[in-house]
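Let's do one together. I've listed all components of the complex below, 231 residues spread over two lines.
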Amino acid sequence: GAVVSQHPSRVICKSGTSVKIECRSLDFQATTMFWYRQFPKQSLMLMATSNEGSKATYEQGVEKDKFLINHASLTLSTLTVTSAHPEDSSFYICSAVRTHANNEQFFGPGTRLTVL
Amino acid sequence: AQSVTQLDSQVPVFEEAPVELRCNYSSSVSVYLFWYVQYPNQGLQLLLKYLSGSTLVKGINGFEAEFNKSQTSFHLRKPSVHISDTAEYFCAVSGDTGTASKLTFGTGTRLQVTL
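Okay, and this is what the predicted structure of the assembly comes out as:
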């Protein structure tokens, strides 16, 4: 149990286009999901906290208009990178917190975004 | 505010040898501590966690960690490593603020196991 999927696993896009990444909790409900980005050989940096039915909370320095987060259901959160540029190329990882569980986050397999 | 320090960016070790990956944290509140493993181009998998109770925590794949409050440490150990343990290991901390607390990660330690 507690499986989190991400789609797509890899995406290559042209500069200026928008890319949507989906994060799904497959066998549990998640009131809260987190979005991280990871640069090569570096740690995970929290971008935002996604709460079902409400606006996401963004970390300092993360542009909310560039990284749009929607958490429309208890099993799905989406991250849309708008007007992507090469510096947005990164590994994006989501995690989901199982409702009524004690703080444990379950991580998705990640999405590799490359912006040309 | 919380922070996590993983002093060793890389740890080379021979197969079947013991290993310790160091993690120190700082926090002004009670903490939950975690160790995650990341294989190339994959997400994170939980190895073990400390929430409360016994300070010696046993996890998956033969790993264990000991919470030491006085030294603010949570070092990860394994008595005999395998080639398959080669991966990136992250220590993380979250505060005692209820459900869905944010995780703060260390910079990671690359464990390289060789024959």
